[in-house]
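User: Hey, my collaborator sent me this sequence without any context and asked if I could get a structure. I don't really work with proteins. Can you help?
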Amino acid sequence: MPPHHKHFNVSRNSMNRLLITIIFLNQFLFAFGQGSLKTFVSKEKYHIDLSVKRQKEIQRRDQLLNKISLTSKEQEELDALLRKHDETVEDVWNVLGGECSWYCGGGNYTIKASSALLDLNGVTYSANRANDLSYQTAWVEGKEGDGIGEYLEYLFKNNSPRITRIIVSNGFVKSETAWKNNNRVKKLKLYVNGKPYGILQLDDTMDDQVFEVGTLGRNKDGTDLILRFEIIEVFNGDKYSDTAITEIYFDGIDVH
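Assistant: No problem. I've predicted the 3D structure and written it out in structure-token form, which is a compact way to encode the shape of the chain:
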């Protein structure tokens, strides 16, 4: 074989080894970067009951509350219903009840998303669907594939009450079918003011998951607080590769 052919084979083999080394190094650096961040796990969950039975009980409670007079039997029924669903429970689809919450004095003033699934049959999947405090709607990313790298970004005025808890309603929880058919998030990378802060490790459950994240907000330089939630790993849906988040909401201090 002519020498120049040998030289070409050596160069090609060297190039292949170099490419393999670069790929390995990139994977190592990515894993190291993720591993150096704190992982937050949910130590508390809020059970979501969106059943027809519960809806009917709340409707019946409201019917009895609106009656001018009640029989003794109706009063007993109302008392029993109020023990299960007090008057702060306005609707099964409301993420928060009617009582005062952190949102009485706080909350983000806008939300952004890297992408969103196109509207379908009048249903929208835009960023604000993960910010409307409703279990009926969800943000669904619009990227091809599982949506790795797509994100939601919440912006808070600097005088907004500080955040200590982040609560995630993972997947499309409006029904068990929608939840199973679509991807759910397994890991969210949290950025605070543009800097990586930690990884939220989510369980594959329809319950709301509560994360204690320290105290966020009231930046010393007076700038807005910006929280970004980036999808880095998912639980695969049975039917679709679209990744959904029903709601990300917050709790904290400086309100009560």
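In plain terms: The two ends are 84 Å apart (CA to CA). You can pass these tokens on to your collaborator as they are.
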